[in-house]
């Protein structure tokens, strides 16, 4: 897995989400064509409340990918002043619309809106983010139709890169509801590309370094640059960086650049494989979202064909 450089230092293999996602997209394109032959175009509604610049970038990327794949994209942009009731009404309308297979409400929401109430309002059958408590409960027992996009993308990235997980120690830094918690529950399930021994550490964990040094696969998702340094990584470990942080960079045209949570330049000299930021896990998240939307459309069509409500 490790390549020897000209100067004889060891440098990690790069794991690129764009490359790995190609195989998944090839399969999705076939499934989308099959649906199209039956008169179905999967539809994804993406709701953005407010004008957070990072959220706008993510939502535009999701929109573009839908168009590229020939999915129907319903872009719902609402002002920051939108009330919770107004948002719940929009979600109810989309729940009832048979041309909409997936509904995603971009987080974070403005402070006056309760995230949980909004997520609870999305039909579990259209919950392509897999944020609804019903789907999260199903996921915990290994029975969910959908898996949350970022954790599922990370699992696929590791699996499709030929990295063994069975019996390996996966250490996750960060316990968020979107990444850390669901990822732990996925990686400990039974099966190929799974079956890992999982430890999740958080900001209150004592002596984090002693735990990260035990990781065969170290996954970092805290949203803070420089969280994992080279001295915290076991030589030969695989490092997956989920962080996306914008930092000032006067040398770049924009005056800023994206970095992950891992000190990439130094950690790549210790790890056997590592994801860059950008280009690592990000493309996998969008890919899994598209896969969930196609799956939702297939399930809806199956029910229609069987005459089930
Ligand atoms: N904000 C950050 N990540 C996500 C995500 O995966 N889904 C949604 N809906 N919002 C997010």
Verbal overview:
The protein is about 40% helix and about 15% strand. By secondary structure, the chain is of the alpha/beta class. Strands 3-13-10-9-7-8 form a six-stranded parallel β-sheet. Strand 11 and strand 12 form a beta hairpin. The protein is globular. Mean pLDDT is about 95; it is low at about 1-10. Guanine (GUN) binds next to strand 6 and helix 6.
Shape: globular
> Helix and strand succession?
EEEHEHEHEHHHEHEHEEEEHEH
Q: In percent, how much strand structure appears in the residues?
A: 15-25%
Terminal CA distance reads: 50 Å
Describe this protein with a few key phrases.
three-stranded parallel β-sheet, 39% helix, globular, binds guanine, 10 helices, six-stranded parallel β-sheet, alpha/beta, disordered N terminus
